[in-house]
């Protein structure tokens, strides 16, 4: 049995828990919203394999990778069973290469139905840029601070209007102390990922309401494609 390989759009809509096999550092920089970190290598292990590849070649790097992964295999299977009791998972690495391929082989051997993202997270990032470049009918809601723009956006959303709440996605209220009491802000990359996932769901024939923001919402930069 071979894993099903899907392009970004189909992969995002496919069934199954989404597992990100990249290292914790890669995941922290940006990931597909909803993905669970399921790292094949730690950051230090990934660095060791990469250094081995550059200094000694592919064959030696593969052997080192196998040496690192072999003791973890049973724990990967056990953890995957806990995360996905139905044994249906989607997974990816950076470019759809050896990390996702190795994990797909292991989980399929353990009886999982596996779907792999063609081109990996790099391909997803291409999908993000393409999605954000897709035109939408935008209405920008402006006004002075304290005039209730966010409240109005929430009311519009409750009435079935299409609303892109940049402040909610950025974990920031847009003011000088707008981060107080909120979770840490996402990276610019992750902010783009979150926006794109919502952007793709909007009906292109209907208006999208966006609150007028400066170039940045806290530390998060609003993508050029939607900055008004």
Fill in the keyword field for this structure:
228 residues; alpha/beta; three-stranded parallel beta sheet; 10 strands; 16% strand
Please tell me about this protein's structure.
This protein has 228 residues and is α/β, with parallel strands linked by helices. The protein contains 10 helices and 10 strands. A 5-stranded parallel β-sheet has the order 1-5-4-2-3. β2, α2 and β3 form a beta-alpha-beta unit. The model has no long low-confidence stretch (mean pLDDT 91).
Radius of gyration: 20 Å
Principal-axis shape: elongated
SS field, number of helical segments:
10
Which strands sit side by side, in order, in the main sheet?
1-5-4-2-3
Mean pLDDT, nearest integer?
91
Give the helix level as a range of percent: 40-55%
Q: How would you classify the helix and strand content by structural class?
A: alpha/beta
Number of strands: 10
Brief sketch in words of this structure:
This protein is about 45% helix and about 15% strand. It is of the alpha/beta class and about 230 residues long. Strand 2, helix 2 and strand 3 form a beta-alpha-beta unit.
Set out the fold topology.
Blueprint: E1 4-6, H1 8-13, E2 17-20, H2 24-29, E3 36-37, H3 43-56, H4 58-69, H5 73-83, E4 88-92, H6 98-109, E5 113-117, H7 120-132, E6 137-141, H8 149-158, E7 162-164, H9 166-170, H10 188-199, E8 207-211, E9 216-217, E10 220-221
Parallel strand pairs: 1-5, 2-3, 2-4, 4-5, 6-8, 7-8
Antiparallel strand pairs: 9-10
């Amino acid at each position: 049995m071979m894993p099903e390989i899907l392009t970004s759009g189909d992969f995002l809509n496919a069934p199954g828990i989404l597992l990100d096999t990249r290292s914790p550092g890669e995941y922290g920089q940006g990931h597909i919203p909803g993905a669970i970190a399921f790292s094949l290598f730690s950051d230090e292990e990934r660095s060791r394999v990469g250094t081995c590849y550059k200094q000694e070649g592919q064959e030696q790097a593969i052997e080192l990778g196998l040496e690192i992964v072999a003791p973890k295999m049973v724990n990967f299977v056990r953890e995957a069973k806990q995360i996905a009791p139905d044994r249906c998972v989607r997974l990816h690495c950076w470019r759809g290469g050896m990390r996702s391929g190795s994990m797909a082989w292991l989980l399929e051997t353990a009886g999982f139905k596996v779907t792999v993202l063609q081109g990996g997270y790099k391909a997803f990032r291409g999908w993000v840029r393409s999605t954000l470049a897709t035109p939408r009918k935008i209405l920008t809601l402006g006004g002075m601070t304290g005039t209730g723009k966010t409240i109005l956006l929430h009311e519009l959303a409750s009435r079935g209007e299409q609303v892109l709440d940049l402040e909610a996605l950025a974990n920031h209220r847009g003011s000088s102390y707008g981060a107080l009491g909120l979770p840490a802000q996402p990276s610019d990359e992750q902010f783009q990922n979150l926006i794109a996932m919502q952007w793709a769901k909007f009906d292109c024939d209907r208006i999208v309401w966006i609150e007028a923001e400066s170039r940045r919402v806290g530390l998060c930069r609003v993508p050029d494609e939607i900055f008004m």
